[in-house]
Amino acid sequence: MASSLMRVSQLAIAIAMAVPATHLPTVSPKLHVASSNPHIFHCRKIGTVFLRSAECLSTPSSHAHRLPLPESSGKDYGRIVGNSRRGSRLCSVFSPPGKDGAGLTYKDSGVDIDAGAELVRRIAAMAPGVGGFGGLFPLGDSYLVAGTDGVGTKLKLAFETGIHGTIGIDLVAMSVNDIVTSGAKPLFFLDYFATSHLDVNLAEQVIKGIVEGCKQANCVLLGGETAEMPDFYAKGEYDLSGFAVGIVKKNDLVDGKSIAEGDVLLGLSSSGLHSNGFSLVRRVLSNSGLSLKDTLPGSDDNLTSIGELLMAPTTIYVNQVLGLVDKCLVKGVAHITGGGFTDNIPRIFPEGLGAVIHANAWEVPPIFKWIKQAGGVTDAEMRRTFNMGIGMVLVVSPSAAEIILGIEQEKVRAYEIGYVVRGGGITYE
Fold this sequence. Notes:
single chain, alpha+beta, six-stranded mixed beta sheet, five-stranded mixed beta sheet, 13 helices, 18 strands, 27% helix, globular
């Protein structure tokens, strides 16, 4: 019995909460009794548990529920994260916990944000000036502003879903959104496409997305590199990197130096996850028992699959941000990427300032709520990994906030999400 229960990370558990096994109706042939305890079953289909309808009424799908081992020490064996009816029974999607019974973290999935920050610190010691969203190069009365990025393991989902036409938009967005935080107008973009065997049709889809991203950012695809490296990548896979260069007058540089206590934080809505946190997302999805073709549990949208939600292209904020910068309404801009609110917003503050975020100031999109529930991810981890529905944060004066919020929003909405305070870091209320 002990050895079978230790494999709970690979097997779902169904708990008949109040009815002895002898009184249960015939169960699915996928189930078998795992021990002498009549309340515990193992399910051979990973990630799925079956509960009688009557018991499911006390386990609403709209909440994540821990499933402690009955009559035991109360060890946490996972969570129900969604329900769907199959015949007379309710099928509940089950998500095992992370290490040591805790919720999953970005580090559990293989990404160590602290290690990345430490590397940046060491690089900055060798090359002073490194560490901002974009690098500044003086050129007469202006600065050239450069940025580079990729799309991370979102590529893995592109391979699995076959959605390659928008990943190029993500690539452009990650770089141009970085350089626009300085108030820079993107000038041109360069791409790097690497694969073991060049599939011309697939590569064309990716490049079309890059071209579309450049159109949205009003910049030129100036060139790039296509590298064919046999045996280096798995069949059908590729890697991407992008490089953007923009320009801003020195007098118009947005650097956050004028940010003061009492200034307002405005959040610009995101299209979804954008291009960060996918290593954790893939771990959560794997544990949940759902596939990329399934729809989101509890969602009213029965047409859009989880894969399509996750592959939504990153919003490009260039036009909206530059329009406000041109009106001299913006003191600082933070691109919410890896590190979330927690790490990115403080990057633009003068020393001695922090921020308070109104956690309920905007509606968090359902995909983030599902990730939190399915992975048992803590609020702190969510806010340091994902954008939570806000892809860009502007710091403005109270009077400028009124003007901006009064402007009719089209695709991207603006929300008043917090304010600047004395102190350091980010707190939530």
